[in-house]
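User: Show me a protein chain along with its predicted structure.
Assistant: Here is one chain, sequence first, then structure tokens.
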Amino acid sequence: MLIDINLLPAKKKKSVSLWVWLVTGLILLAAAITLFAGIQIKQGQVERAERELSSQQQLREAMEQAASVTTGTETTSADQLRQAVQWSQVRRLPASPILKHLVSLLPERGFFQSMSYVSEETMNLTVQFDTSRQGAYYLAELKASDWVENASILQMDTSVDESEEEAKAILEAADALPRYFVQFEIMFDEQVVLQKLEEQNP
């Protein structure tokens, strides 16, 4: 029977140094931190890009909406101007001879204050008189005119209210009269007016 006797000293197992583990841990930790930081940076860049894209889209939509409103306003203004031009072109009753005729019907102390056309044949006319009787006289003259199809008084005002005793006293002291402002609505007979104008300008 053979017996193997090893008289050499036993080899010690190599133990991994603590420093190796520490360095490895630090490397792994640094790698993890770097990876996490990179992910966060990329995510921030993506979010910033998305915000910029959203802002650009909102800006574009706002600009398109503003352009649409501006175009609509310009179109409306252009349409109104075109309609006004067309209306003035189709007007058959010239204002100048009509005003001349209306002036000829005024009493001596009657003065035009304002006028405006309600339609092609209808005019609102405000006249100043010294007395209310002159306003009634002018209404009768308008109704008697061949040029006028119908006339009526819309409103009558005076420069001094009947209850203003002080103002009335001042007028009496100055030997002055209150002024009466009468607004008439006058509807012209288009056929008659055109015929009269043709007779005046053969």
